[in-house]
Fold each of these.
Amino acid sequence: MSQIQQSDITITKDGRVFISFLWDDLYSLTCLEKETCDIRPVHWKIPEVLNFEDKTEYKKCSLCPKECGFDRVRYAHPSCGDSKLRVSNVGISFGDEPLVHGLGGSGCIMLSGCPLTCPSCHNPEKVSHGKETTTLEFLRICQGLLENGAENIQILSPTVHIPVLINNLKILKEAKFPLPIIMKSSGYESVVQIKKFDGLVDFWLPDFKFGPCSEWGKKAGVSDYFEMAKESLKVMVEQVGIENVLVRHVLAPLPEREREIILDFLNASGLSFSLSDTFVVLE
Ligand code: SF4
């Protein structure tokens, strides 16, 4: 399996971004088409499972704080997609903080669909497209990442897939899957939904993107981002402990005052946080 690398992100002043941080050729390199991978022997056997078919929560969707009620069973939401679990990319990443990637790399499963429409999204093509993935295929992906030396399973962009993820993570935990589960969140999460991950997630990796009254937050369609992100962070900390939450603030070109408010909050919170400065603003 090739390794995902994290490239610098180039962003224009109006928020358009040119480089994606996950390479394109990784999906075909996973173990999806095979019964097992034989790269490294592991002592974990995929349990027999049924595919997740309960569409109740997708019928009148309230999976993110917008609670818009869209019927994702009948139609595909423009940014969140339909009711199927869709995986856009899989691979071993060394692009995260050392705490996350360790020696073997983080086993990333990037899902498609996101309620945010950030102009600075660095993976728009990944967010909009994804391969329908059954529960068994999801477990095979986890097994493949385990066999390829991943230190953990990192699920990126989980929000619009929470019901099926809860189902799949319960199966992993009940079958004693040996790697910790990291959930990489945009930070814009529903408290009610985050509580459902209790006992299923070992480490939260949320973004903290926007301050109050943020023009960028409005462009992303989440003018209440600051309040919602603060609330969901509280629940993440209660769930896994403050030592198992790492907040990321990407140094996108926000107004200075907004940045100060975000950093004041993070400094006062006692949380570990990292500042990513991979943005390059084109003139
Ligand atoms: S996840 Fe998407 S469809 Fe569901 S409530 Fe949020 S914006 Fe609406």
Amino acid sequence: MKVVDFTVERAKRFNLYCELVLRGDFKPSLPGQFYMLKGDWGYHPLLPRPISVMDEDVKDGKIFFLIKNVGEGSRRLTELKRGDKISGTGPLGNCFPIDKISNKDFVAIVGGGVGVPPLYYLLKKLNENGIKPHFFEGAKTKGDLILQGKIRKLGCDLKLATEDGSCGKKGFVTELFKWINPDFIFACGPYEMLKAIAKTFDKDGVNCYVSLEERMACGYGICLGCSVRTYDERSNEHFERVCCEGPIFDSKRVKWI
Ligand SMILES: Cc1cc2nc3c(=O)[nH]c(=O)nc-3n(C[C@H](O)[C@H](O)[C@H](O)COP(=O)(O)OP(=O)(O)OC[C@H]3O[C@@H](n4cnc5c(N)ncnc54)[C@H](O)[C@@H]3O)c2cc1C
Ligand code: FES
């Protein structure tokens, strides 16, 4: 982890989203890791915001993020312009356990909303290792489906679902893959989606990993503000920090509420 002074190279806005390309002297990250990002805007808001790495080109000194404007912090980030300065602490957190997968495994990736960008980075890394996952993306409506072009460009089989039926299958993303029997499933998105996936695949032989989102203050283990309830190997309940022990957890270890 390090604090990096980034400069905005490009900011591409669409709907409520902004794809930020930042330039700086950063350390390589692994899929699922994130940065705490804060622009040069003083005290409002005071705290940086956790944003997942969507892609990076270490040689060229470029790192990519996709941000949705949902409140003050994310609004400020989506309004950055070319040449603006921004500070980023990272890469933070653990990563998806890609070293456990072989190219014989059936791998499913499931994303919703701002959970999709880190999964795109995961897909890219899996492809580099010769693994061809199946990608399932869900959203409330067509305008909220993101990164379809980039995912398909990697030659990935992408299936879509929207709650209002405006694109792909009508209903929750979980409707798309109830029938599958994966060796690995990697998911990132809204809590209820992750919970439904965890319940569906709560059986032996399926390795299900979820990336949890929690409000974060520090991002590196000091404030304990991001703690969630989990179970250890003896099924004892305890707390773990999403920013340090996570954000990726074996779904069977999460105490779902
Ligand atoms: C590990 C991690 C990776 C993330 N990656 C991305 C990413 O790649 N792109 C992206 O756009 N967003 C990402 N997020 C979510 C992002 O951090 C929040 O949307 C942002 O912090 C909201 O801050 P705000 O000031 O804009 O909103 P606030 O004014 O603080 O809140 C606005 C609304 O968003 C909800 N909210 C705030 N923070 C979160 C959160 N962490 N999870 C769920 N709901 C939240 C609030 O309950 C409220 O309804 C990530 C979060 C985590 C924990
Ligand atoms: S955000 Fe402070 S401990 Fe996780």
Amino acid sequence: MFFDPLYLLVMLPTLALSLWAQFKVKSTINKYSEIGTRSGMTGAEVARRILQQRGITDVRVEEVDGFLSDHYDSGNKVLRLSPSIYGGRTIAAAGVAAHEVGHAIQHAERYAPLMFRQAVAPVASFGSNVSIFLILGGSLLASASMTLLGVVAFSVAVFFTLLTLPVEFDASRRAKEVLANMGMVSGNEGAGVAACLNAAAMTYVAAAVAAVAQLLYFLFRLGIFGGREE
Ligand SMILES: [Zn+2]
């Protein structure tokens, strides 16, 4: 089943979409990492100021190595920003920092999709790991029930990937709003922030499309859409 031309036909466009999204986010972040904001605040200052304004006092802001390695660690309540974001006084730095603070705010407010996503995470990770063995094993042993179990496990992982979308879109929405409201970006700087965050969102959309396409392929091969009988 893994040498199936149909599989390539399904996965190649999604791979292309994912590569395009990654290229787009890198080029957009690079472009707006060259453009300073009028407020002149670093990403770290932006993050700390928003946290303070929201009354969130238990989240630390730290620098982390890498490019686009920015993330909010909810377990340790640490907001980690990559060097160009942490110390950058640019539109990209303000946008990415505010987005990550958006996740810290979601956490503080116990935003339902985030909480649900965290609850599903261990199951999804397990499902993702075992699914490939079950599907491959089921295929090799011609065991439909083993394959089906694999596809069920895989669908939990797909569901988790889909849950990422509302969480990410909401964090970006909060970021744009708070940056404008607090006057940390003004005028056309908002459009630059939006460009950075929309490009980042596309990588999550691409991942979701790939996951759903793969699941549909598995379901098709299981005969759920009238695919051929094994
Ligand atoms: Zn995010």
